[in-house]
Amino acid sequence: MTDRESKYFTLTLESLRAIGGWAADCAERALPLFERRAGSDLRPRAAIDGIREFAAGGKRAARLRSL
C-alpha cells in the first residue's frame, strides 16, 4: 500500500448513517444561533432534515449533496 492509499478507508452504509446522525446532532446545536441571525435562510435546516432522513434509513441520493 502506498502512502497515498493509506490515507483513505472505506465506510459502510451503516457507518455513513451513524456519522450522518452524529453530524446532524452537532449542527442542530448551533442552528438556533444561525437562525437568530438569518432566520429566512432555510438551507441549514433543510440539510439537517435531509441527513436525518438518510440516517434513519432513507436513500443516499444526489439530493443530499445539493442541500
How would you describe this protein?
The protein is mostly helical. The chain has one domain (11-66). It has three helices and no strands. The protein has helices at residues 13-38, 43-55, 62-66. Helix 1 (13-38) runs antiparallel to helix 2. The chain is elongated. The N and C termini lie far apart (35 Å). The relative contact order is 0.15.
Summary?
This protein has 67 residues and is an all-alpha fold. The chain has three helices and no strands. Helices cover 66% and strands 0% of the residues.
Let me know the largest β-sheet: none
Poorly predicted ranges (pLDDT <50, ≥5 residues)? none
Q: Radius of gyration from the CA trace? A: 15 Å
Indicate the percent of residues in helices. 55-70%
Shape: elongated
Count of individual domains:
1
Mean pLDDT: 89
**Topology as H/E string?**
HHH
Structural class category: mainly alpha
Number of helices: 3
Distance between the termini: 35 Å
Tally the beta strands.
Answer: 0
How much of the sequence lies in strands comes to under 5%
